[in-house]
Design a protein that fits this description.
Structural class: mainly alpha
Number of helices: 12
Helix content: over 70%
Number of domains: 1
Largest sheet: none
Number of strands: 0
Shape: globular
Radius of gyration: 18 Å
Length: about 230
């Protein structure tokens, strides 16, 4: 099998649940409608897509692989290529919804300089796709996204997020003055990243974190022994 056929294989057997794909479709439709009615009113839709992507990308790998479901694509193939194909299929519905919303924003604004298509939008999409996917490679589906969302909620409830976000809104230079805290703030509440301005160093740190997550997930798949397990185990 080629890598393309690996994409086809995972698209057939390992794509995110249909219910989440329907949610993405609805969010895209809502975002496009809002932009047609009132330019710049779909920012909350981007945040919603990012939140849903936490779960959609957490498809899991090892549990299915140890039951033999992925044998047709694993046998005789480089595991790194298989891993990247699995990641691409896991992330695809959310990426398409994000790009669709970004296209609607760009058409309404008459420019590609819109939140979804700016560097902060791209790094958000990478983070919410890569980290949950990598965290769920050797665990149950949805676990990576669930843990991240619970952490975000806990930090908001503890008052660790809203205050700094408000400060960043009033004083955009705060992120440049406190890059480490700004980076931690973005990871704590990634859905808010497209709504704010971030210095290049913080954006690079976001991108590097997402890329590292993909690499670690692929490495985890490459080094997994994947012994066959009983169906009910």
């Amino acid at each position: 099998m080629s890598r393309l056929s690996a994409l086809h294989f995972f698209a057939a057997v390992a794509r995110p649940p249909a219910a989440l794909t329907v949610v993405f479709t609805i969010l895209f439709a809502v975002g496009a409608t809002l932009e047609a009615v009132n330019r710049g009113s779909s920012d909350w839709v981007l945040a919603s897509i990012a939140a849903v992507q936490l779960f959609a990308a957490s498809t899991g790998f090892t549990r299915h692989a140890t039951r033999g479901y992925y044998d047709p694509v694993l046998i005789g193939r480089r595991r790194s290529h298989v891993a990247l194909a699995h990641f691409a299929v896991s992330a695809a519905p959310g990426v398409l919804a994000w790009l669709g919303c970004g296209a609607a924003q760009a058409v309404a604004a008459g420019s590609a300089d819109v939140p979804a298509l700016r560097p902060c939008g791209w790094v958000t999409l990478l983070l919410v796709s890569a980290i949950p996917w990598a965290a769920s490679v050797r665990t149950a589906p949805f676990l990576g996204g669930t843990l991240w969302l619970l952490l975000s909620i806990a930090l908001v409830a503890a008052g660790k997020v809203l205050g700094p976000l408000g400060r960043l809104h009033v004083q955009p230079a705060w992120a440049s003055e406190h890059p480490v805290r700004a980076f931690a703030l973005g990871l704590a509440f990634p859905a808010a990243i497209p709504s704010f301005g971030w210095p290049p160093a913080v954006l690079f740190a976001f991108a590097a974190t997402g890329a590292a997550a993909v690499a670690m997930g692929a490495l985890g798949i490459s080094r997994s022994e994947l012994p066959l397990a009983e169906e009910g185990a």
